[in-house]
């Protein structure tokens, strides 16, 4: 079934822009109320939901990874006011779009595969949303905004009540600068009784939300914050040492995890690699180095792709340097960063001999 879906998607993927337009036109025609769930300007949004739907449908043969993610996604979508009938409308629009652009490649077998796979996705999401009794979202007030460079900022947000997240997880945020455009961000601190959250935001070229947050966030802004998501965590019951690999603002969840570990009685031996193209990309490395100086259980290694002899950093990509040090087969491994960095690092580690079941990463945190 999965192979049938992947082959049919490969057939229509070159027409994904037109397919996305068809998808949303069908959705809004069948369920007009769903239009209010999306931003006025659909340019950024047009392909996002469609790509996500196709991605999860293609993962139906990986239930151990897919089902927990779908359950989190279902709980997260409560913030939109999603109803049961919306799942039906989305499924109809998705299958209609794929069928339309498949033309003669659309067969009874292909139709059955798409219907069965999407039905499983919708059931998992809807069941988790129905079972959740916590808040659909929280409000937070920006209490600090510090520019660390032209493209990066630290933003502190005080929430109305503590959000029940685990160090290493991420949340979705909606800001006044970009209404109805949600962005995933990872808190850079472990949960605190006062509910304060610190976020690291880098402005990326195509990131409407990230660019607005870096340049235009103001103290006093009110954010809406969705439920925590993600499977990044350092298992306190594990007796193995830890390896953490962070690229760019992937440093944020690593800092939260280190803060959480620092508060434990038993602290695992922890090796951290932090990388970027240049030394300037390691925007908060000084705080990690300071933490390592005062904690014997922690060692931190900077990595840069462009040589800078004065920095003392290792040279190469994170994938190069981490695997240069070994296979890390006896470690629990956490990888944080951009999707491309995660793919490259995890692939190289698997080739080097790191067991897949020892590696944790969240591939869904994109702008």
Outline the fold blueprint.
Blueprint: H1 2-12, H2 16-30, H3 48-58, H4 63-76, H5 84-102, H6 108-131, E1 138-149, E2 152-159, E3 171-174, E4 183-185, E5 196-202, H7 208-216, E6 222-225, E7 241-247, H8 251-262, E8 270-276, H9 285-293, E9 298-304, E10 314-315, H10 318-324, E11 331-336, H11 339-352, E12 359-361
Parallel strand pairs: 7-8, 7-11, 8-9, 9-10, 11-12
Antiparallel strand pairs: 1-2, 1-6, 2-5, 3-4, 3-6
Q: Could you walk me through the main structural features you see in this protein, from its secondary elements to its overall organization?
A:
- There is one protein chain.
- By secondary structure, this protein is α/β, with parallel strands linked by helices.
- The chain has helices at 2-12, 16-30, 48-58, 63-76, 84-102, 108-131, 208-216, 251-262, 285-293, 318-324, 339-352; strands spanning 138-149, 152-159, 171-174, 183-185, 196-202, 222-225, 241-247, 270-276, 298-304, 314-315, 331-336, 359-361.
- It contains 11 helices and 12 strands.
- The chain has a 6-stranded antiparallel β-sheet with strand order 4-3-6-1-2-5.
- Helix 5 (84-102) runs antiparallel to helix 6 (108-131).
- The longest helix has 24 residues, at 108-131.
- The protein is globular.
Number of strands: 12
* Order of the strands making up the biggest sheet: 4-3-6-1-2-5
- CATH topology-level name of the largest domain: Globin-like
Q: Any low-confidence stretches, pLDDT <50, length ≥5? A: none
Categorize the overall geometry.
globular
Class based on secondary structure composition and strand pairing: alpha/beta
């Amino acid at each position: 079934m999965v192979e049938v879906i992947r082959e049919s998607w490969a057939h229509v993927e070159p027409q994904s822009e037109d397919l996305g337009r068809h998808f949303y036109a069908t959705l809004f025609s069948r369920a007009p109320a769903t239009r209010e769930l999306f931003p006025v300007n659909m340019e950024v949004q047009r392909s996002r939901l469609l790509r996500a739907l196709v991605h999860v449908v293609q993962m139906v043969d990986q239930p151990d990874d897919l089902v927990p993610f779908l359950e989190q996604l279902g709980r997260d979508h409560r913030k939109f006011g999603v109803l049961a009938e919306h799942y039906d409308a989305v499924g109809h629009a998705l299958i209609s779009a794929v069928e339309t652009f498949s033309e003669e490649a659309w067969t009874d077998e292909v139709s059955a595969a798409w219907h069965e796979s999407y039905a499983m996705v919708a059931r998992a999401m809807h069941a988790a949303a129905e079972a959740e009794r916590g808040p659909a979202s929280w409000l937070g007030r920006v209490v600090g905004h510090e520019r660390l460079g032209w493209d990066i900022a630290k933003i502190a947000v005080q929430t109305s009540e503590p959000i029940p997240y685990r160090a290493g997880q991420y949340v979705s945020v909606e800001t006044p600068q970009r209404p109805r455009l949600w962005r995933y961000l990872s808190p850079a601190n472990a949960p605190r009784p006062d509910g304060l959250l610190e976020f690291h935001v880098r402005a990326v070229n195509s990131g409407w939300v990230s660019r607005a947050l870096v340049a235009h966030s103001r103290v006093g802004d009110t954010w809406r914050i969705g439920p925590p998501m993600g499977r990044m965590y350092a298992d306190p019951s594990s007796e193995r040492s830890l390896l953490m690999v962070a690229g760019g603002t992937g440093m944020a969840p690593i800092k939260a995890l280190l803060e959480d570990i620092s508060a434990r009685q038993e602290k695992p031996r922890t090796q951290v690699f932090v990388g970027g193209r240049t030394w300037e990309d390691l925007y908060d490395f000084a705080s990690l180095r300071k933490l390592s100086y005062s904690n014997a259980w922690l060692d931190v290694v900077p990595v840069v792709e462009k040589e800078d002899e004065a920095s003392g950093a290792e040279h190469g990509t994170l994938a190069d340097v981490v695997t240069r040090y070994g296979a890390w087969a006896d470690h629990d491994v956490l990888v944080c960063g951009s999707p491309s960095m995660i793919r490259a690092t995890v692939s190289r580690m698997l080739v080097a001999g790191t067991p897949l079941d020892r590696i944790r990463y969240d591939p869904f945190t994109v702008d």
